Amino acid sequence: MSPSLETLQASLQSVLGDRVARLTQRLGEVTIEVPAAQWLSVAKVLRDHSEFRFEQLIDLCGLDYAQYGNAANEGPRFAVAVHLLSVSLNQRLRVRVFASDDDFPCVASVTAVWTSANWFEREAFDLYGILFEGHEDLRRILTDYGFIGHPMRKDFPVSGHVEMRYDAEQKRVIYQPVSIEPREITPRVIREDHYGGLN
To answer: How is domain 3-153 classified at the CATH fold level?
Structure first.
């Protein structure tokens, strides 16, 4: 482990203390896990404290841990992962926050701390159904306004619930239940003797 990662780990443990549920170092990055109730206060410390100065939120995404690693997950199902960058101290940090309720996943919004979180939080809401408490404009960003469900959840059907098509008689787009019959496709590879012009 590099000295800078050791220094960052030591600083996180001393400054945040018991607000960090778990701290790991893997693949050259430090990851901390923070309880949902502590997330907003930890975010402010990570941005403002002189030993961290994480000025930039680079990425925020939703995670669904249902059947994680081809096995049933024992802990909470939904989480939010955040990647932070300190330009002034040249360090990075990954933060993971698990929503405490699987039926109503909710974590605090950090748009007041990092404004770049705005569209990322909307995307996580749209695709995973994770609510961000305190977000001023939490609405769908990638799917249609009338879309039902959250398509990146692992229990969302591959074909979806509804399909849309243009109806020439009504002269408008209409929604109807999916008419695609599910089928299993087993790929077959057939190559000719001179495939791609090679002898």
So the answer is: Beta Polymerase; domain 2 (3.30.460)
